[in-house]
């Protein structure tokens, strides 16, 4: 599949590398066409991988991962343009972290709205799916590094888009029973606001190699 | 132990009944001295149980559970008075739910503050411990009804108070490894904001008999 990954940070590089390893044609996007991190990633990853501006890598991709920082995500997709993202599936992995109040960070948007809903409103013809934002990058693409049963949440307004993202998650190693559909895109407030708990668990455990699982009868 | 339970709703009654069953002297408090629900609870529970106003049941209790609705918790403790709660441990089980935006509810306070922090500021000489707010009432007092490993979070500024609450949690059936200390009272933003995810999981699962567990290496 042709997949665009927006963002060159740890999350973007980790997801892009995993997708390329699974045989996908991955384009890594950044604000500028000559981003050194993206160029180095292409060099390491080899044939089939490309890099360019956000708009260039979105090009004819079927699937787009938003791995930009949450504070910059709306600007990033505005740079691409709603028309260029129309009809595509956008997996929103970002968290709208606000570092202006000290540590741990707070959220720029929450409670009565979420970043995923903001993106969906900005891109009405794009199928936004919130997923994977509730764990560290390595756990996203290799769930087996955390022992025991633990889960990944997804939500969005389009069932076919969620099914496509579910396929990608299975290819990352997530078993069916660990992929929890929370419903419409407004449900993204749940996994985004969970970040406040994730940050305290990270502090208490001293490692990012953890995740939550839902126990139920 | 002499324990006051503030609130006559499902959470208050469930916790009060469990505590009475464990042999504690439990007083159930409400806004008025003649609350019919509290009177019926005393009738069912028998010797050792009492009911009265919030201030009356706090009396000489060593431990106080705040099981009032989150929207009314500050008023409830103001009614008791900071002086009457000085030196006591207050377990804050409440969630500051805001039903004015429709379903599912949002939060009255979050992100840069929490109900538990508001209570601690209102009651500077009380040892506030946030705990148990992340699950339905029956799971709080009988964790074994949900199979598998799942956890209860607590936080607060006073270690001795957290140890006392930890003892109560163990007596409810929580194993040591499932009692997760998140740190200071400001960490209550984590479990309180998790409610946004809990509400979507409740919707997706169709049962309150669930809880999350933290998987880690």
Describe this structure in words.
2 copies of one chain form a homodimer. Chain A has 10 helices and 11 strands. In chain A, helix 4 packs parallel to helix 6. The model of chain A has no long low-confidence stretch (mean pLDDT 97). By secondary structure, the first copy, chain A, is of the alpha/beta class. The interface between A and B is large, with 45 and 45 residues. Strand 11 (210-216) of chain A pairs antiparallel with strand 11 (210-216) of chain B.
**Largest interface, chains and sizes:** A-B, 45 and 45 residues
Number of E-state strands of chain A = 11
Across the major sheet of chain A, the strand order is: 3-2-1-4-5-8-9-10
- Please give the oligomerization state of what you see: homodimer
Helix content of chain A: 25-40%
Low-pLDDT residue spans of chain A:
none
Distance between the termini of chain A: 37 Å
Mean pLDDT of chain A: 97
Helix count, DSSP H or I runs of 4 or more residues of chain A: 10
Give a short account of the largest sheet of chain A.
Answer: 8 strands, mixed
N-to-C order of helices and strands of chain A: EHEHEHEHHEEEHEHEHEHHE
Q: What is the approximate shape of chain A?
A: globular
What gyration radius of chain A follows from the Cα positions, in whole Å? 16 Å
Q: Helix/strand-derived class of chain A? A: alpha/beta
- The proportion of strand residues of chain A reads 15-25%
Keywords for this structure?
alpha/beta, homodimer, 217 residues
SSE map:
Two copies of one chain form a homodimer.
Chain A: E1 2-6, H1 10-21, E2 25-30, H2 36-45, E3 50-53, H3 54-58, E4 63-66, H4 73-80, H5 82-85, E5 89-92, E6 97-98, E7 106-107, H6 115-122, E8 127-131, H7 137-141, E9 152-156, H8 159-172, E10 179-183, H9 189-193, H10 195-205, E11 210-216
Helix pairs in contact in A: 4-6
């Amino acid at each position: 599949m042709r997949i665009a990954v927006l963002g060159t940070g740890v999350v973007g590089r980790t997801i892009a590398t995993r997708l390329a390893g699974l045989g996908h044609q991955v384009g890594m996007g950044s604000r500028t066409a000559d981003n050194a991190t993206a160029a180095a990633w292409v060099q390491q990853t080899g044939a089939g991988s490309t890099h360019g501006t956000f708009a260039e890598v979105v090009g004819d991709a079927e699937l787009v991962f938003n791995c930009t920082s949450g504070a910059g995500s709306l600007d990033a997709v505005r740079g691409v343009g709603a028309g260029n993202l129309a009809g595509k599936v956008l997996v929103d992995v970002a968290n709208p972290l606000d570092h202006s109040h000290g540590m741990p960070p707070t959220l720029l948007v929450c409670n009565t709205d979420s970043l995923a809903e903001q993106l969906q409103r900005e891109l009405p013809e794009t199928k936004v799916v919130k997923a994977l934002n509730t764990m560290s990058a390595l756990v996203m693409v290799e769930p087996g590094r955390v022992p025991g049963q633990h889960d990944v949440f997804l939500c969005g307004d389009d069932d076919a888009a969620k099914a496509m993202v579910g396929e990608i998650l299975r290819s990352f190693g997530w078993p069916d029973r660990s992929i929890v559909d929370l419903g419409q895109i407004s449900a993204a407030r749940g996994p985004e606001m969970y970040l406040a708990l994730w940050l305290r668990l990270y502090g208490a455990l001293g490692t990012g190699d953890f995740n939550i699982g839902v126990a139920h009868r």
